[in-house]
Design goal:
alpha+beta; Sulfite Reductase Hemoprotein, domain 2; Sulfite Reductase Hemoprotein, domain 1; six-stranded mixed sheet; five-stranded antiparallel sheet; globular; iron-sulfur; NO2/SO3_Rdtase_4Fe4S_sf
Amino acid sequence: MSTSARVRADACPGVFATHDAADGPLARVRLPGGAITADRLLALADAADDLGDGALHLTSRGNIQLRGVTRPGLADRLAKAGLLPSPSHERVRNILASPLSDVSQELASALDKALCAEPELAELPGRFLFALDGGQGDVAGEGADVCWRDGAILLAGDDTGLRVPAEHAVDALISVARAFLRIKGTAWRISELADTKPLVKDMPGENREPQRFDVNPGLPIGPIGEAIAVAPVFGRLTSAQARAIARAGNAVVTPWRSILVLGPLEADTGLVADPDAPSLGISACIGRPGCAKSLADVRADAARVGRAPRAHFAGCGRRCGKPAHEHVDVLATEDGYLVDGAFVPVGELAETLATLAKKGTE
């Protein structure tokens, strides 16, 4: 781990501090653990229609963004829906939880309440990320600053050797967050600290030899017991699709831009429920015209690609929304794309990615 001096302010967007995108203000709504009730999903769908661009945009942290929010009143709507339990903490409620683990989901709710109850933790950087992994290894590999993985405490993905039972998991993660605030200096993330030992020093728990855990990111698309996992193309959920999910019941938004619907979903929603659908392997930033920094309409170009390996299309070097796990890097240039650093004209993208996909199965 290395130190890193941050010379600019933390501009991570929220509801009160939006981001000025080319298509209008962008607001990010935190969903701790990704959990959202049907009525809250309806409130977001209404807000998207009345105040924004008519869609809910899923993020790689299991949150939802509203784009083009040019009309006032969003904060009041979300507060009435219960989506802003602590305005002072709204940008720091960054909590991932295993979608299929009841224990992780319950802990995420408890952690959110504990986080919002401590005024000092409102000063955490907007990029600081908590995770609660039930042992599946799904969210443990998503770049969290501090993760409880079925008892193990991980810092920036590395096992500390400390073991804490579920009943003390929330206290342990809150303790790490407090300690980070005390020693962080200009750092935004635990990975930027030269020494992480002070974060868990004297923390109650059992100490073992640190181990290396496997990770297994993602959620299987399709039926899962009485639930079903679906994915909107490029993470863009229309307000109509959101209402269809709400009619089915509560849901969990995942960091893989998919949604676990906890009830019977009606047919013909346009949501991807086929685990073999080509679009599942491809993600993309918003691109043109939504982002002024983008060099291409990356979603339009990505939509023309058929068979492909897991790939992320980015309109500029910031690579917004890129997956935490292994993928092919497809970066826009003025006259084409760099595919893992090699230039490829737009017209040859589909063939190039299909070739890479074929090699990956050999």
